[in-house]
Amino acid sequence: MIFATTPSQTVGPYFAIGLPWPDGPSAVSDGTSGRVRIAGVVYDGAGEPVPDHLIETWQADPEGRFADLWGHGGPSRLEGFRGFARSGYEDGDGSFEIFTVKPGPVAGPGPPGASPQAPHIDVSVFARGMLHRVVTRIYFADEPQANAADPVLASVPADRRQTLLAERVADGYRFDIHLQGPRETVFFAI
Amino acid sequence: MSPTVTEPTTSSPPRLWDRAADTPTSYVREDEGAHPPLDYAPYKSTRLRHPTQPLVYLPQTVTEITGPQLAGERVGELDHDLTRQHEGEPIGERLIVGGRVLDTEGKPLRDTLVEIWQANAAGRYRHRWDRWPAPLDPNFSGAGRCVTDDEGRYRFVTIKPGPYPWGNHHNAWRPAHIHFSLLGRAFVQRLVTQMYFPGDPLFPYDPIFNSVRDETARERLVASFSIHATQPNWAAAYEFDLYLRGPGATPIE
Q: Do B69 and A11 touch (CB under 8 A)?
């Protein structure tokens, strides 16, 4: 390493004048088969919704391929797949939503052939009052077998794994994020 | 599925650089002191918004070493020029703000999206929640986008944002700043930060700027005036280079 990284600063309360896109919450095209909504609320340590937060997500497609130009393991073949979603509002109420497809399993850490990871979505959370993003992952409560074999979930204290599981609801999945408090979400060092 | 880099198989025209070879398969891990602490009492809003449990180590898997490649399709013709997005010119000191996006090895990040947003010359954001009673400028929205070129360069034309008061403590004022958002090439490179102007008298009083505890690191948030990039009879120029995490020494974990 020759240079040091530029330090992070808070996204502040007014990011909505620049960062949201009209199609930002969509990681896939509208007509994509298997499209689901993942929604939730970001809460602070007092249990209050955080209205001025920004969520970004990054994930593989159902085949476990990414919308990376050359990809690692080959680029996604799903038409219109972006794999990236961004949700943030000028008049936020603490809730967020993204529209996507459930990712497939992807290669796990370790040498080639190591056990794959369960379907997951990487999440960045930014907000006023946060000097740096926090990173978490969405796993799916309806994938108990894959989750049981996932090497990352296995490294999370058992009593906190629940905070990483999106629950199936009528129109997709529900995933709340608690920045602090008794139900604090697991955040990762990357 | 193999995590190794796949060579492109299409017969696309040759490029000046090879994206696959330029895309690392691991990145240095985040240095604990590289970024400000999430729990920083002088910035009051951090109090209920920082995790109290230790972060869990996440190995860099294929999800973390890939990232959104949004470039051209997100950028309109005038998105880089914040002074030409309305019928008239915004009021304020016209500036050119440019620089390079590099990794910590000094390698340029090409084709990467740079997004900025800022207050107007009076220190007011065009945001419904900004209640600071300074005038809005009908000719200034305050948001810009561009994509870096083959040398990792970006360039915006804008006006100098004004400082503004905020409620953190008695007589709190933010030094003039421009917000920057970078996607980089991998999820681990994502960065949101703020660019400041040299010699701002508000620096000693601003907890957000001073949340970066190391003085040398703080200086990396301050642009430098460039007489060379300044255009005679038109606009002063500031240079601001940004460094994102570079390749790691170890292969993919």
A: no
